[in-house]
Structures are given as C-alpha cells and as structure tokens.
C-alpha cells in the first residue's frame, strides 16, 4: 500500500461523507428541525477530523517514521544504521 492510495481513498471518503451529511442536513432544514441540522453539521465536522487523523497516521506509518527515527530527530540518539565516518 502506498501513500497515494491512502490519500486518494481519504479524498473519496471525505467527498462521500460530505455529500451524505449535507443531504441529511438539507432534509432536516426542509422539515424545520434545526437541532437535527446542527447534529448533521457536527457529524460532518467530526467525520472530517476522523478521516484526516486516520489518514495522517496511516501515511506516517507508510512513510516509515517510527519512534526510533523520531527520537533521532529530537537529538536523543544517533541513527543505528549510520556510523561515524
């Protein structure tokens, strides 16, 4: 699995989620139910946040950033694969 597949899938999910939530919010507005409309807007925002966070975590794992590499970036230890010249 590559990062481009994950990003593409996330874009498709975001579009589908947005269409579903906007349609249901519009139907709630037409019925005069402002509470349900606000709930669907909240579901839309939460879904977007969830998709973004999940995509970020998957892409980070795919790229290969692990705890060891992050600790190197923080200056805690030298990367074990690179020895002094």
Helix/strand layout:
Blueprint: H1 3-31, H2 34-63, H3 67-73
Helix pairs in contact: 1-2
Description:
- This protein is mainly α.
- It has three helices and no strands.
- The longest helix is centred in the middle third of the chain and has 30 residues, at 34-63.
- It starts with a helix and ends in a 12-residue tail after the last helix.
- The mean pLDDT is 84.
Mean pLDDT: 84
Total number of helical segments? 3
- Helical content, roughly? over 70%
Largest sheet: none
Structural class: mainly alpha
**Unreliable sequence segments:** none
Q: Which sequence of SSEs, written as H and E, runs from N to C?
A: HHH
Spatial shape: elongated
Distance between the termini: 35 Å
Q: Which range does the strand content fall in? A: under 5%
Radius of gyration: 20 Å
- The total count of strands amounts to 0
Feature tags:
85 residues; mainly alpha; 3 helices; elongated
Gist?
By secondary structure, the chain is an all-alpha fold. It has helices spanning 3-31, 34-63, 67-73. The protein is 78% helix and 0% strand.
């Amino acid at each position: 699995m590559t990062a481009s597949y994950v990003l593409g899938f996330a874009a498709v999910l975001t579009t589908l989620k947005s269409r579903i939530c906007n349609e249901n919010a519009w139907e709630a507005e037409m019925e005069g139910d402002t509470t349900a409309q606000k709930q669907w807007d909240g579901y839309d925002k939460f879904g977007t946040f969830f998709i973004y966070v999940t995509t970020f975590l998957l892409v980070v794992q795919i790229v290969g950033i692990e705890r060891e590499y992050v600790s190197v970036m923080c200056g805690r230890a030298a990367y074990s694969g690179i020895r002094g010249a």
